[in-house]
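Readers of this paper often ask what the protein records in our data store actually look like. Below, we set out a record of this kind in full and without editing:
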Amino acid sequence: MNCKLKGIRHMENKAYTPDEVAQIFQISKHTVYELIKRGELQAFKIGNKMRIEQLEIERFKENMKAPSRKTVGEQPSEAAFTAEPIRLAGSHDFLVEHFIKQVSASLPLQILPTYIGSLEGLMMLYRGQSEIAAIHLLDPSSQEYNLPFIKQLFVYEKITVLRFASREQGFIVAKGNPKEIREFEDLTRKDVQFVNRQKGSGTRFLLDSKLMNLQISPEAIKGYETEEWNHLSTASYISKGSADAAFGIRSAASHLDLDFIPVANEQFDLVFRWSDENKSSLLQLLSYLQSADFKNSLTELEGYDIKELGKIIYQNSDMGDKNEE
């Protein structure tokens, strides 16, 4: 299946540090952070590191050329953003990136992402440090995704859980699969170098669950301790020949023209935490997620199933009666 997602980030879309952006525009690093804080320059986090994408830099350059553009020292107009930015924390995903960019282009809202892994994203939501969590956490006991963790944490908090997509997870290997990696047992071979995702990521949860069920010790896997923070950087180890196998999503393999051996389908969900302050903004985002406009911005993406996109699968909020489907 040869499928594309409109507007998806390609691997050539480099991400820059605030220092590099400051050099590009000949401004101070503090001004860059101020632009990010005011919502004029969109950034994201990988771990604790701030990054700005090439496409965002080009967009900002074009805005600077516009006659109505305000100077760096001026405050943005109320028309630019009508609400406080919405903070999203959790798992990195290409579909999430697309959603954030579509919201910026279609609504008077801004989403500030922090790609820090599913578990930490859920904990940031619990601590009130974000309004949305993007997660795909497999509970080893029930073999159910996301809801066991959510129900344990959010007893009194008002939340809504939306199905975002189902994703294919599996082995990412070099073109032609020269090491003939087919099963988890193959990762223990002496001639196989592995690269892992960081602790707390949903992908790491799934991998460790599979290894535990098969009674495979992590110590038997060469490279198990080598960790990366997102799917594309993990897959790039295979592309560069630095590793023979990774565990990740099909779309990352497709981005770098690598082979993919499917292992499991997982549920990727968005968790909204409601408050009086964010209710209006979250309602707009919920409505947009369920809209024809957003769905029309997508075509079938390789490695994803989006037929349940926007479906409310659990609710414990004043947006409706407590509900589980």
Observations:
- Confidence is low (pLDDT under 50) at residues 1-12, 67-81, 320-325.
- DSSP finds eleven helices and 14 strands in the chain.
